Amino acid sequence: MQVDDGEKRAVAEVTLPALFLAFFWLGCTSFGGGTGGWVYREMVQRRGWIDERAFLAEMALGQSLPGANGIKMSVLAGRRLKGGIGAFTAPFALLLGPFVIILLVGAAYSRIAGYRAVHVVLDGVAAAVVGLSFATGISAIAKGAADPSAIAIAAATVFCVGVLGWPMLPVMLGLAPISIGIAWARGRR
Amino acid sequence: MRGSFAGNLLALIAVFAPLSLLSFGGSNSVIADIAHQSVEVQRWTSQREFADLFALSRAAPGPGSMLCALIGWKVAGLTGAVVATVAFYMPASLLLFVVAKIWSRWQGARWHQAVERGMAPIAAGLFLSGGVAVLRVAPAGLVAWIAAIVAAGLLLYWPKLHPVPLLVASGAIFELVDILGGAP
């Protein structure tokens, strides 16, 4: 069963319990923030449940709206796979594990916070998570946007937001019309 | 400071629900507001406690914004944790759901395809930017850049690689470098 409003995109047949388990596990293992990258990698690359380009476009839409990125991605993925019930189940499953874990860890934290090693190891984990963001972005360019104008748009985005540190929303509003205009002019699928 | 139990829950909703709809660009954009509300306005936590809770929410699995669960827990126990979490995630999720539903109704139209194709490279660029932004403030400096680039290479080379072993390895290597005195 696919999304109710007639989407013909390639979406895998996934049962609701399978969806729940996938996101539950994703939540429990997505260390170091960057949950959006985990969701993308799991849905598009590791499990191949969702078509890459369509998901990327929805994601860009999602990024122009408020909300935690990992949660937004899970709402979109859940909706694509199972409609309304999926859009509720995916973020619920994603948050369930971390919710229980963080309260448990919260109770234990004061005892381990003094150790330098705790912070060093966390820095290491965080760096690998950044690697995940890079891998996600590069793979997204390779699969969803591999022509010179799209690469230029991606590079401009990185320069403005990542290097110059400009706020994301105005950058998007500035680049989106140009990028959409180019895609429109090309006019092919 | 202790209000009534119901009063505390309402205060949690009044703080987190509006921030949900203001968190453009992800929940990081409202961490400063959460800190301000939690420490100065509502006096739920001290400055020090807030810093600890923040570090903790980064260390645990799941979205960094699970911070709101910890604050809710401090204010009103388990119920508070649930209420704060729902208040922070629900409004933005509902908004996105409605927008995505309207959006997909136009599936197949030529302009819809142009928007899809046009937005994809921007989404890709935003992923890369998020990584760059984190590395620019990373305490480990050059070591963090190298680790991130190596990790990205491995993840790209093996699309099915599960990331957790990679995270564990990176954490272990950082500790090793620190012990050997190489970390800047």
Task: Put the structure in a nutshell.
With 189 residues, chain A is an all-alpha fold. Chain A has helices at residues 16-29, 35-46, 52-63, 69-112, 116-144, 148-163, 168-186. Chain A folds into two domains: 16-132, no CATH class; 147-189.
The gyration radius over C-alpha positions of chain A equals 18 Å
Note the beta-strand portion of chain B: under 5%
| Terminus-to-terminus distance of chain B | 42 Å
Round the mean pLDDT of chain A to the nearest integer and report it.
82
**Structural class of the helix and strand makeup of chain A?**
mainly alpha
Determine Rg of chain B (CA atoms, Å). Answer: 20 Å
Binned, the helix content of chain A reads over 70%
Helix- and strand-based class of chain B?
mainly alpha
The dominant shape of chain A is globular
Main interface pair?
A-B, 115 and 102 residues
| Broad shape of chain B | flat
Question: What does the average pLDDT of chain B come to?
Answer: 84
Strand content of chain A: under 5%
In terms of per-residue confidence, which ranges of chain B show pLDDT below 50 for 5 or more consecutive residues?
none
Main sheet specs of chain A: none
Number of domains of chain B: 2
For the largest beta-sheet of chain B, the strand count, sense and barrel status come to: none
| Total number of beta strands of chain B | 0
Report the strand count of chain A.
0
Order of helices and strands of chain B: HHHHHHH
Task: List low-pLDDT spans of chain A.
Answer: 1-9
Question: How would you sum up this structure, described in words?
Answer:
- The complex is a heterodimer of chains A (189) and B (184).
- Chain A is an all-alpha fold.
- Chain A has 2 domains: 117 residues, no CATH class; 43 residues.
- Chain A is built from 7 helices and no strands.
- The two termini of chain A are 25 Å apart.
- In chain B, 76% of the residues lie in helices and 0% in strands.
- Chain B contains 7 helices and no strands.
- The mean pLDDT of chain B is 84.
- The radius of gyration of chain B is 20 Å and the shape is flat.
- Chains A and B meet through helix 1, helix 2, helix 3, helix 4 and helix 5 of A and helix 1, helix 3, helix 4, helix 5 and helix 6 of B.
